[in-house]
Amino acid sequence: MQRRFGGLPALARRALARSLALLPVSAAGLARDKQRKLAAAIRAAGSLEQLHAALTSVWADPAVLLQPHWQSTAAEQLMLADARTYLPADILVKVDRAAMAVGLETRAPFLDHRVAAVAWRLPLALKIRGGTGKWALRQLLHRHVPPELIDRPKAGFAMPIGAWLRGPLRPWAEDLLDPQLLQRQGYLQPAPIQHLWRAPSTRFAS
To answer: Which of 48-52, 54-58, 177-181 has the highest mean pLDDT?
Structure first.
């Protein structure tokens, strides 16, 4: 279905949308406003993902809700994308799971909504200056914290998954990625997975 919908030319999508819009409400089985929304979504969407987004979003273009300074530069666009995806779906999840595994209660004070609101209102020059990020925050910290605690390489929380999969976890990974197993499960294509797993360029390859 994904391939069929995405392969429909724009002319065919417009014709389908027009036909739906002209159907009597009783025939479509939808309220008139929902029928119009579905027709407009079909007309505009080029893939099932876009159709789903159009049907589940209150706003056709959520970007119209953002104040101009939020979308004024590519850097701020990326910051917003990080705040909406990478932060809640990756970093915070890892911290929460790791902390809860040992009964540790963590706090993220910079995510207080009042702090976040102030941070978003700052001009970009106070966020990044001379290639240095968090510029305004660093200036505040320099008043109270020794420089060696501020101006040092970032220490992340990345786990050495590559080394584990190349080493002690390799037999486990090989079992999970066995082509016959993948074929029987019926979800993933074995060939591209095996190609990536065996490719010398992959970070998981031996």
So the answer is: 177-181
Give the other-Cβ count within 10 Å of 41's Cβ.
20
CB 21 within 8 A of CB 13: no
Residue written as token pair 């020794």: 146
Residue among 48, 55, 44, 37 at smallest CA distance from 14: 44
33 near 58, Cβ under 8 Å?
Answer: no
Instruction: Give 193's strand partners.
Output: none
> Whole-angstrom Cα distance, residue 181 to residue 146?
55
Which residues, 6 or more positions from 105, have their beta carbon under 8 angstroms from its beta carbon? Answer: 99
N-terminal to C-terminal alpha carbon distance within the chain: 38
As given in the structure block, the two tokens for residue 99 are 């902390």
Residue 67, SS3 per DSSP: coil
Q: Which two tokens mark 61?
A: 């273009």
**pLDDT averaged over every residue in the chain:** 78
- The count of residues in the chain is 206
CA atoms within 13 A on the CB side of 132: 13
pLDDT, position 188: 87
